[in-house]
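for the writeup, i need someone to sanity check this before i put it in the appendix. the sequnce is what the collaborator sent (i think, or maybe the updated version? ugh). structure was predicted straight from it, no edits. if anything looks off just tell me and ill rerun, i have time this weekend
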Amino acid sequence: MTEKYIPTMSVKGWIDHPEDKADYVISCFMESNYSMSVLHRDQNISLQYLLKVYANRMLDLETRLQDELDAKLKASFNDQSHANVTVVEDPATPNQYTINFTGYVVTADKTFTVGWMVQFQDSRVLKIAKLNNGV
């Protein structure tokens, strides 16, 4: 199987390490906008877009986030790679939720885990943090 590299517009150039690639895929999903592409309109699904579409349906949001990240990780790596997404309501603050993204990347000899946590309230992102080893 040929190795897949991800090009960036930064000084890093091409990303080739599996953990860095998974981190970059999840980061781009969280930071991109639905209307960023004219050529691929309606195909650039992002976190912000899904927060808008599924504003009051957290179970549907969790399912769609899971499906989108699974597809992105499988496209960037292989069919054994997958994502786990949970959306949890904050009991102390109404309408505030935490999304935990965990990506599992399987290579020939090792499994890498990357994770991000996003807190949002009323479709507005409050905090984004990288998690150590996906937890």
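The first helix runs from residue 18 to 31. The beta strands are 6-7, 14-15, 82-89, 96-106, 111-121, 124-131.
thx in advance!!
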